[in-house]
């Protein structure tokens, strides 16, 4: 029984070594963080050495398991000696397992030594970069230097996709780091195609369904194409950082958190009292100050009772305030402004929060946003 317990403990340790959680990362106990302390080369050289070390570490895990069992049996034979005592058939399987573990580790050592020959010329990352050589960058080291220089700049974008993958976008390159390598594409020689949207439950303060856009990166070198997954919240930033248009297939339909909030905000505003058009200054010919596309159709007019969820009056600093501004905003832009004033971690409670008027800074809630009678009539029609 004790061998089963140690086996599962070892499996758990190996799993979290390969796939570290954010909690493990926060205390600096990941392989990447340990390597970054001692490997101070550029981005490309760092990943060449990091992937080699990871391969050695991960393939040594089976051998380490057997060595730990032997060590425990030698230190405390009374308790652990039975762990390595088998029947004839069991001993045969044990010997085969140890032999395979040793062989796997030796093959990995030989492979990494081969990669390291000629200053890492044989490493898979170096061979990938060799395909991007130009007269100005005659070898993979020149390409690596270009990537390293751009990675040092503040203009880069870095998105952590998951525990083993990170997306890096520089001025000229799109790079996806993996467990044992990286995928690279030069922006001006690639096409970007968003072909699918996934929904995944993400645990933050609450469980929320997050949209991930799957984008195929297709360089001119067809053998180097790869796929990246971008969180819907980061998609706009990703679009701004790449200098290529992203083709959205007809089947790709995604909406950001802000877009979904705007719809919910509108639904609530539609339930609020309507302000008579005679009670507001003329807005004929005016356009929304934010989008400049439509006529202002809402006014902030205090309607709420300043009562908290417990039924008690709110203190003065939390109460909504009268707003005397004339209608200047459409409901969509006011909803976007309202959302921009909230904490991202509290998105499930945005509708119950408060914001300030963009002009006079009077505090208001969604119950204080009222449609203007004439505009509301047009919308119903």
TrEMBL record:
Keyword line: Membrane, Transmembrane, Transmembrane helix
The keyword Iron belongs to this UniProt entry's keyword annotation: no
Transmembrane segments: 6-24, 55-73, 93-117
GO cellular component: endoplasmic reticulum; membrane
Location(s) in or outside the cell: Membrane
Membrane topology: Multi-pass membrane protein
Alphabetical list of Pfam families matching this protein: Tmpp129
Major subcellular site: membrane
InterPro entries to which the protein is assigned, alphabetical: TM129
Tagged with keyword tRNA processing: no
GO biological process: protein ubiquitination
GO molecular function: ubiquitin protein ligase activity
Superkingdom of the source species: Eukaryota
Family: Belongs to the TMEM129 family.
Protein name: AGAP011818-PA-like protein
UniProt source species: Anopheles sinensis
